[in-house]
């Protein structure tokens, strides 16, 4: 049945509602890129934020969209960082090459380990992912001939981006580079989650039993999204290695994964912007606290976690908006005009 | 060889005392308390401070290493943990990680980040040779204490009224309440005892495991391995798992140091994937 | 003629308990067939074996003559075997529009498309519209599924299965729990299912069974007890005995 030009059926309008680009998003990205001109002394901070945001975006893909909890996402961040760092150290200094290699390596690792998280309850997945990250950390630690072990990977020299933009000590190039990479990968992720593939991922999160019953090959889809998320985390790791020109075992540490969940809790999972907003808030908080009591930042993270859980956030497995998501309104969250499911409500 | 076995057994016993509280909260109360190691750390610090600052004999500090973490556990259970029973595991994990972070930073703030040393009394130092095997006196002491504790815990859980009430409370809290069982009180008491045992383990283990503010994070994974490999349906599974882990870790570090903890982590993943309910638990 | 769906000697044991006991069963093409039986007779186990949620201990499942015994659930759906659930199994955070769209896109092999959204695919949209109209869901397509009235959720439950364009449709107690006011819509939707879809109805509600089914099979203790036309089964004293014996609870 040919649709008349100009007029949209309710079906078409309804299906285009969720993927529609909203003006808030334009504002968000104008602000993001505007940061380049506003903050001459904050280039490094912004690139740190962009990297964390990309990392959080990666976790959001599996946690917010696919409903897979992970306590070990740092495994892929670390792998990406080491791959990019090693490439640069051994002569291949082109940053984009490093990104691609890191993404490929992390995707491969994600693909291989995705089969471990297909089954099992949340608790099993939490522990398996934690275990995978520990194994990666242990490998990096033991393979000191390659990774530098506890001393870290030193002697990384980066070439200019695209052969044109040299990394400078103020972090101007790093700032622009990380933001552009984040933006491109964000657009890609946005496309993916609003595609039929993305719809099937959300369906699996909501009800795997039913997803199978409408013909969704659940396991293969989960493997695919997990692999994609791992590649994203790998790119984040590569950016980290390239902008700091250093990689240490710290990139694989447990606190990286734990912080990351906190970022998503702050920003809200399941709508892509949660990770970005969470990253901004997290880093700004860290920056603020760091000037007061640098070594006790851990205490404040812990306190925030405890308070957030106790005051009753919406369960992030139910892809709720999170604290700031609610303040920022329903950015990119159509079809969610009403209160979340019972059980997802904040408890009194 | 036998010395390594002996050290491994001592290490495993210690792990069990440290982790059994976690096995109970997870298995019986279905609560993932990653902050369990913080209570162990508390016990270790209590012992170290009493010994080093006030000169209390090591053995005399041990009751306090139990009582003080138990009291902290009781207070936290009543004020905070109680709100999280029945919440998702992810919530519980986030909450308890938060507590871990706070405890790590707080201890760092109060006592500094350096290692705490516990100087053992002379009669616990040194080694003796029994039937050709070098046996550390302190490790024998640990084995003796832990063996007593294991038997005591098993008896309490299976033979006493408290044990049967606890099992009833876990099976169906509503029915148990209907039978006049003080479910909240039982949970609180269990939690407190578990925390106290962890504290005692922390004090006993300070010499072997080391004691600094990062203790809860460093050993969290060991406790989790004990619980996941051993299963949570009783304490026999975790006990066996502790012994295996202890022996494997000591032997691994001795014979194949290059592998490090790699083998143990891999083992945990394999067990989790193949038998999520634990190696020694019957499938439900 | 090949049956739409057939089982040969299908068995399922849970430990010592036999939940499905050597069931040999035929669902003819275009059939309106009901499977009844007292509580605990193993109806749901049987459905789970047909759809692949459970693996049988023995026996074969044939869909239009092809052996599907070892296929996973999603592959069976793609081959034309769809089901509804006794307890709603929907996607709370998605809209009915997206839910039906998902089923249609998966059937057309679009589930791996990761670039263009469903809103750009005319054939899919036309199908969604047709399915929504058939089940009276057009007005609420854009609502969140979790907030729909129960009767609408029940209709969506069937609509999703129907959107997979099954040749065999298993309806597991479609009217369970639907309030009286919304019942008529649901029964009408079930009655209006097209003839090219062979339907196996698992039901407790005898009014629905007698009004809908042409043949009835009775399952007792996991085994086929009897089978016949509505007339034969409804007058069979043994069936009455089975039901009366169980009717107390």
Automatic annotation (TrEMBL), chain B:
Keyword Transmembrane: yes
TM region(s), chain numbering: 9-28, 58-81, 93-111, 137-157, 186-209, 221-248, 254-274
Membrane topology: Multi-pass membrane protein
Coiled coil: none
Gene Ontology cellular-component annotations: plasma membrane
InterPro entries assigned to the protein according to its UniProt record, in alphabetical order: ABC_transp_permease, BCAA_transport_permease
The protein's name in its UniProt record: Branched-chain amino acid ABC transporter permease
Organism: Enterovirga aerilata
Lineage: Bacteria, Pseudomonadati, Pseudomonadota, Alphaproteobacteria, Hyphomicrobiales
UniProtKB/TrEMBL annotation, chain C:
GO cellular component: plasma membrane
Keywords, ordered alphabetically: ATP-binding, Nucleotide-binding, Transport
Molecular function GO labels: ATP binding; ATP hydrolysis activity
Nucleotide-binding keyword on record: yes
ABC transporter domain ranges (all copies): 5-246
CDD domains: ABC_Mj1267_LivG_branched
PROSITE patterns: ABC_TRANSPORTER_2 (PS50893)
SUPFAM superfamilies in the record: P-loop containing nucleoside triphosphate hydrolases (SSF52540)
PANTHER family: ABC TRANSPORTER ATP-BINDING PROTEIN, CONSERVED COMPONENT OF ABC TRANSPORTER FOR NATURAL AMINO ACIDS-RELATED
Protein name: ABC transporter ATP-binding protein
Organism: Enterovirga aerilata
């Amino acid at each position: 049945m040919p649709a008349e030009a100009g007029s949209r059926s309710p079906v078409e309008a309804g299906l285009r509602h969720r993927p529609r680009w909203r003006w808030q998003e334009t504002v968000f990205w104008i602000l993001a890129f505007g940061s380049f001109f506003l903050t001459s002394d904050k280039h490094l901070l912004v690139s740190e934020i962009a990297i964390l945001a990309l990392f959080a975006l990666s976790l959001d893909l599996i946690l917010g969209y696919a409903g897979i909890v992970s306590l070990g996402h740092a495994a892929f961040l670390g792998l990406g960082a080491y791959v990019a760092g090693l490439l640069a150290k051994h002569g291949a200094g082109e940053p984009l090459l490093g990104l691609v290699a890191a993404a490929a390596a992390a995707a491969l690792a994600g693909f291989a380990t995705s089969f471990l998280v297909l089954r099992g309850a949340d608790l099993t997945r939490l522990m398996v992912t934690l275990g995978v990250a520990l194994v990666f950390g242990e490998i990096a630690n033991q393979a000191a001939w390659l990774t530098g072990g506890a001393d870290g990977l030193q002697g990384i020299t980066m070439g200019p981006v695209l052969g044109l933009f040299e990394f400078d000590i103020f972090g101007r190039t790093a700032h622009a580079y990380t933001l552009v990479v984040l933006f491109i990968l964000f657009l890609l992720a946005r496309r993916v989650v609003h595609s039929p593939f993305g719809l099937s991922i959300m369906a699996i999160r909501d009800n795997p039993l039913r997803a199978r019953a409408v013909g969704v090959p659940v396991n293969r889809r989960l493997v695919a999204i997990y692999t994609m998320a791992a590649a994203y985390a790998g790119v984040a790791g590569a950016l980290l290695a390239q902008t700091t020109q250093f990689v240490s075992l710290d990139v694989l540490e447990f606190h990286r994964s734990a912080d990351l969940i906190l970022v998503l809790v702050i920003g809200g999972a399941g709508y892509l912007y949660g990770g970005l907003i969470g990253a901004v808030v997290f880093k700004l908080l860290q920056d603020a606290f760091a000037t007061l009591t640098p070594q006790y930042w851990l205490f404040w993270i812990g306190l925030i976690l405890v308070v957030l859980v106790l005051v009753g956030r919406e369960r992030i497995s139910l892809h709720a908006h999170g604290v700031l998501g609610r303040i920022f309104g329903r950015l990119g969250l159509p079809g969610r005009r009403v209160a979340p499911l019972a059980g997802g409500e904040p408890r009194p | 060889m036998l010395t390594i076995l002996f050290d491994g057994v001592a290490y495993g016993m210690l792990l069990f005392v440290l982790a059994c509280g976690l096995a109970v909260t997870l298995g019986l109360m279905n609560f993932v308390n990653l902050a369990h190691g913080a209570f162990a750390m508390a016990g270790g610090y209590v012992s170290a401070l009493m010994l080093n600052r006030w000169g209390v004999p090591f053995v005399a500090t041990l009751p306090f290493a139990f009582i003080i973490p138990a009291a902290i556990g009781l207070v936290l259970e009543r004020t905070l943990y109680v709100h999280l029973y029945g919440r998702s595991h992810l919530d519980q994990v986030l909450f308890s990680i938060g507590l871990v972070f706070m405890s790590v930073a707080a201890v760092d703030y109060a006592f500094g980040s350096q290692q705490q040393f516990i100087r053992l009394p002379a009669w616990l130092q040194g080694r003796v040779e029994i039937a050709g095997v070098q046996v550390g006196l302190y490790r024998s002491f640990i084995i003796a204490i832990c063996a007593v504790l294991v038997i005591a815990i098993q008896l309490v859980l299976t033979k006493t009224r408290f044990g049967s009430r606890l099992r009833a409370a876990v099976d169906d809290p509503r029915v148990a309440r209907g039978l006049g069982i003080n479910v909240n009180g039982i949970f609180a008491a269990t939690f407190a005892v578990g925390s106290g045992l962890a504290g005692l383990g922390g004090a006993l283990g300070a010499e072997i495991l080391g004691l600094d503010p990062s203790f809860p994070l460093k050993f969290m994974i060991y406790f989790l391995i004990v619980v996941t490999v051993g299963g949570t349906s009783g304490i026999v599974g975790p006990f066996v798992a502790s012994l295996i882990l202890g022996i494997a870790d000591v032997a691994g570090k001795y014979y194949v140091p290059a592998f490090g903890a790699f083998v143990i982590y891999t083992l945990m993943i394999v067990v989790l994937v193949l038998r999520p309910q634990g190696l020694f638990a019957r499938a439900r | 003629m090949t049956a739409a769906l057939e089982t040969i000697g299908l068995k399922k044991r849970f430990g010592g308990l036999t939940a499905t006991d050597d069931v040999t069963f035929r669902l003819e093409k275009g059939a309106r067939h009901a499977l009844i039986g007292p509580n605990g007779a193993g109806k749901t186990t049987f459905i789970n074996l047909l759809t692949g949620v459970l693996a049988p201990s023995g026996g074969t499942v044939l869909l239009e003559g092809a052996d599907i015994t070892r296929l996973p659930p999603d592959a069976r759906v793609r081959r034309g075997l769809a089901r509804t659930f006794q307890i709603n199994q929907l996607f709370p955070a998605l809209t009915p529009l997206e839910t039906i769209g998902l089923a249609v896109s998966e059937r057309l092999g679009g589930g791996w498309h990761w670039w263009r959204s469903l809103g750009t695919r005319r054939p899919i949209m036309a199908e969604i519209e047709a399915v929504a109209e058939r089940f009276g869901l057009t007005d609420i397509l854009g609502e969140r599924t979790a907030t729909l009235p129960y009767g609408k959720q029940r209709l969506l439950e069937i609509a999703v299965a129907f959107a997979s364009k099954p040749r065999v449709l298993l309806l597991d107690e479609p009217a369970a729990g639907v309030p009286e006011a919304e019942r008529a819509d649901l029964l009408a939707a079930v009655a209006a299912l097209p003839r090219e879809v062979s339907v196996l109805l698992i039901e407790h509600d005898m009014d629905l069974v007698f009004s809908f089914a042409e043949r009835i099979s009775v399952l007792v203790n996991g085994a086929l007890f009897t089978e016949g036309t509505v007339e034969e089964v409804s007058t069979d004293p043994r069936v009455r005995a089975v039901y009366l014996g169980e009717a107390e609870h």
